[in-house]
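note to self — DONT lose this again. spent like an hour looking for the file last time. sequence + predicted structure for the chain T wanted, 112 res
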Amino acid sequence: MTQPSATPTVERVDAEHRYEILVDGKRAGLTAYLDRGEQRVFYHTEVDDAFAGQGLAARLVLRALADVRASGKRIVPVCPYVAKLLKKHDEFADITDPVTPDVLHWLRKELG
């Protein structure tokens, strides 16, 4: 397991529709999204095995959710990890929309 020597940073990469967490300039993980109007639909989160167990996924997703709030969008947690984290962080409840069959159908169509 790699220990970060610097504070991890989170960046939004609009061209890739994801947020990335970087450790010493190397991508350690990501959370992917697609925008649906005013909703940011999170559908996948992963952290490289080399960085597992360091709390990077939580740091990544919490920064991403704060960015969603700052942008005026709403959160749709299709990703199970994002949904789980939101249950522990009710400060985002006011901007969280439920995952509906309509959203899932739209997401499947968008992802092909």
